[in-house]
Amino acid sequence: MSLRMALLGVLDIRPSSGYELSRFLHASAGWVWSAPQSQIYPLLRRMEADGVIKAELQVRGERLERRVYELTEEGQVELRQWARTFHPSPTVHDPIALQMLFLDTVSTADGIRVLTEYAAEQDDRAAHYEHRRDRLLAHDTPLLRERLLTAPREQHDRIAQSKAHVFDGQARLARERAAWAREAIGLARSNPG
Amino acid sequence: MSLRMALLGVLDIRPSSGYELSRFLHASAGWVWSAPQSQIYPLLRRMEADGVIKAELQVRGERLERRVYELTEEGQVELRQWARTFHPSPTVHDPIALQMLFLDTVSTADGIRVLTEYAAEQDDRAAHYEHRRDRLLAHDTPLLRERLLTAPREQHDRIAQSKAHVFDGQARLARERAAWAREAIGLARSNPG
DNA sequence: CAGGCCATGTAATCTGTTACATGATTTT
DNA sequence: AAAATCATGTAACAGATTACATGGCCTG
Fold it and tell me: How many angstroms separate the CA of B60 from the C1' of C4?
């Protein structure tokens, strides 16, 4: 359901083709919800059949077509309805936590290597999130700018801050995960097996 | 792949039936990786066909059978191999982050309600994680006790601590998410739309 | 003898990933 | 002329959820 909402959410701000949506997810919102093209294109067709979006065909050059989608009224309603409702979090699937539960059966050196790479991966993600947060605070991303066109000027900072806060939260979680992994390394070293 | 490893990891400590594995995931490791019975039973059959586990049939009462699985040597190897290798984290799917990105289009009151329920949910989860962490530190869970039977006594505390650290990490992440949501409420209130 | 727990599954559906396929347009 | 980018998809598989189905055993 959430990918559907991600697409509706973007289309609510700016009509886009499947290709643009795919690129956008990869570049920015993809840091909270990602999906490959092969999932996006069929879903758009289905959403069109459901009547929540409609396509306008555009011709670029002579033969190259693109389908530019926009929300219908049903789509608007579905998005608002979803956004204003609390949805319980899905069940937990945390691979590194699971791996750590069984890490006491491998050598200390191997365990430390796994945790070190994990910490580096999470720090790297955190840096990306922080960069995006800062760009949002500076009103420096295309989609935010388009969003602000339809909002009264005195709300611009509040909207930017609320979106930046999403990425700030993700950054903090990633830093917390990296710190957790380094503590685990400390545990492993303090009492090597 | 991870559910497969969760099952291998438990079976490495104690031979169990599908029902026991299902209950165990629901009760404890389920807090890091959960799955319904309908996913576990077919997977066990498949893993048996793959030769990583083998079943012994037990008869309880007259007709009621249970299949008690244990690891084969191939299973041992697969588990160790997986545990000592770093696996990049899967792509991000965070529904509440996505919802927050579009929360600026609903009323402040609705937004605050969603975030309040989310914070409560995460605090609730954190409490469960903390409880499990404390039980592990006290060596007070059945599976840990069985694990410790096959480890030298001087390593018991280290093993318990490393498993407790998994749940401590999950608890801290949940608390962080709750704090994030409350900050978002603050943002929404400070500049209501 | 009723209610809860033990025990194993199937069916249908939805969601997500990886790999492949095709061809036009634009830029260097 | 080659390389990068724009553009839309299909196929096969893997992973996860929800609902349903069946029946025996154990305790009060």
Answer: 18
Q: Are B80 and A106 inside 8 Å of each other by CB?
A: yes
Query: What tokens does B172 get?
Result: 């801290």
Contact between A34 and B91 under an 8 Å Cβ cutoff? The reply is yes
**Region B42-48 average pLDDT:** 98
CA nearest B170: which of B120, B129, B123, B141? B129
Determine if the pTM surpasses 0.90: yes
| CB A99, CB B87: distance < 8 Å | yes
What average pLDDT does the segment B16-41 reach?
Answer: 92
Q: How many residues does chain A have?
A: 193
| DSSP state at residue A106 | S
Task: Report the interhelical angle of B2-13 vs B73-83 (nearest 10°).
Answer: 120
The set of residues, in sequence order, having a beta carbon less than 8 Å from that of B85 and lying 6+ positions away, is: A114
Structure tokens at A111: 């365990």
Contact by Cβ (8 Å): A178, A171 = no
List chain A residues with pLDDT less than 70: 191-193
A33 CB contacts (<8 Å, ≥6 apart)? A2, A3, A6, A25, B92, B93, B94, B95, B97, B98
Which residues of chain A are within 8 Å of residue B166 when distances are taken between CB atoms? 97, 100-101
Q: Nearest 5 degrees, angle CA B181-CA B186-CA B187?
A: 95
Q: CB under 8 Å to B127, separation ≥6 — which residues?
A: none
Counting Cβ atoms within 10 Å, is residue A58 exposed (0-12), middle (13-18) or buried (19+)? exposed
The size of chain B, in residues, is 193
Judge whether B169 and B99 are in contact, CB under 8 Å. no
Q: Work out the percent of chain B whose per-residue pLDDT is above 90.
A: 91
pLDDT of amino acid A65: 87
Tally of CB atoms within 10 A around A168: 21
The answer to whether the beta carbons of residues B86 and A118 sit under 8 Å apart is yes
- Candidate from B33, B94, B103 with C-beta closest to A83: B103
